[in-house]
Specification:
With 319 residues, the protein is an alpha/beta fold. It has one domain: 3-Layer(aba) Sandwich (Rossmann fold), CATH 3.40.50.150. The protein is 41% helix and 20% strand. Strands 1, 2, 3, 4, 5, 6, 7 and 8 form an eight-stranded mixed beta sheet that branches. Strand 1, helix 5 and strand 2 form a beta-alpha-beta unit. Helix 7 (166-176) crosses helix 9. The radius of gyration is 19 Å and the shape is globular. 42% of the residues are buried. The protein binds S-adenosylmethionine. The site of S-adenosylmethionine has 20 residues, from helix 2.
Length: 319
């Protein structure tokens, strides 16, 4: 499905860097089958398959809650109309679909995610919303199926922390960017600054042993330390790597109870931990979580202070 003014070739790359098999254009199944065979980190993303139906179910709420982060990526990625933009780790299509409205009918937004269920959800959303300038395919961040010098901007919202090798992924982003253009990534700042994630985690920790993650574990707070992701950009060859702290409010127009349901459903880790509890413990965890979450309940719904790092860099121009 390519309807805007230009078309990109689907450019498969084998693990050794040689050209791989060309999949059927627009097919998630073909690249997914190839990825399963060729990518050793396939197991690491399997958890996202289980979460995909819930990310699709709560898609509109997620879009709304993180709209300020999308806006920051649009600004720092210098995204405007008629541009070709790549959204990596797009999940069920965000921020790709919001950015497609900015790029306009003469622009084009590609979204990639290695989880076929996420890709299918993104395609359904694009169809339902009538977007004709988007395309979604299955791919890993460190093997982008696009030719060099293709995009005016590359973005990823809450994706980089889950890449097995973030530096390899950034090198790929720089390869597919046009010279002089920007990549912009969003990563969570420290847990204590983000009660949206932290509040329920804290309660569950009272019941399920939750040792601190290893230093570079692929979890939400992997890049919480200021400078860590910016240094990855520098190491991967981005020019003028920069970072800013985005302080905003996550507005979720839902009840405390509906927030609890959504929060548990979209997190594979929370669902796994809750599954380890007895029925009585689940009732007690829920009671305590609702009590803690009430601190963020307003007459408009849930409202959380939030902090995210927006990290950006530029692809160098040839000398
Ligand atoms: C927290 S979700 C973010 C989804 C979306 N960008 C958003 O902000 O709503 C993380 C996404 O990263 C994807 N992901 C995990 N490992 C990846 C990898 N190696 N390359 C690209 N995406 C990956 C998951 O499938 C999942 O959809």
């Amino acid at each position: 499905m390519v309807t805007a003014g230009f078309q990109l070739a689907y450019h498969a790359v084998a693990p050794d860097g040689s050209p791989g098999t060309e999949p059927e254009p627009g097919s998630a199944a073909a690249p997914a089958a190839i990825l399963a065979l060729m990518h050793p980190e396939q197991a690491a993303i399997n958890g996202w398959s289980g979460a995909a139906p819930f990310w699709e179910k709560h898609r509109e709420l997620i879009r709304l809650m993180f709209a300020p982060v999308t806006q920051a990526l649009v600004e720092d990625g210098m995204i405007g109309s008629r541009q070709a933009v790549l959204d990596i780790a797009t999940g069920p299509g965000e921020p790709a679909l919001s950015v497609a409205a900015v790029a306009g009918p003469e622009g084009k937004v590609f979204g990639i995610d290695p989880v076929p269920e996420m890709v299918a959800a993104a395609r359904r959303a694009a169809d339902r919303l009538g977007f004709r300038n988007t395309q979604f395919d299955a791919a890993f961040a460190d093997r982008l199926p696009f030719p060099a010098d293709t995009f005016d901007a590359v973005i990823s919202r809450f994706g980089a922390m889950f890449f097995p090798s973030p530096a390899d992924a950034v090198r790929e982003m720089l390869r597919v960017l046009k010279p002089g253009r920007k990549l912009a990534l969003a990563a969570w700042h420290f847990a204590e600054r983000n009660p949206f994630l932290y509040t329920v985690q804290q309660v569950i920790r009272r019941y399920v042993d939750s040792p601190p993650p290893a230093a570079d574990a692929m979890d939400s707070f992997r890049f919480a330390s200021p400078g860590k992701l910016r240094d990855v950009l520098g190491e991967a060859g981005a020019m003028t790597p920069a970072e800013r702290l985005l302080q905003f409010t996550i507005e979720a127009p839902v009840s405390v109870e509906d927030f609890w349901t959504m929060r548990c459903e979209i997190s594979d880790t929370l669902r796994e931990k809750i599954a380890m509890l007895s029925r009585e413990q689940v009732t007690e965890v829920k009671r305590q979580a609702l009590e803690a979450l009430r601190a963020y309940s307003t007459e408009r719904g849930m409202s959380f202070p939030a902090e995210v790092l927006i990290v950006s860099g530029t692809k160098s121009r040839p000398a």
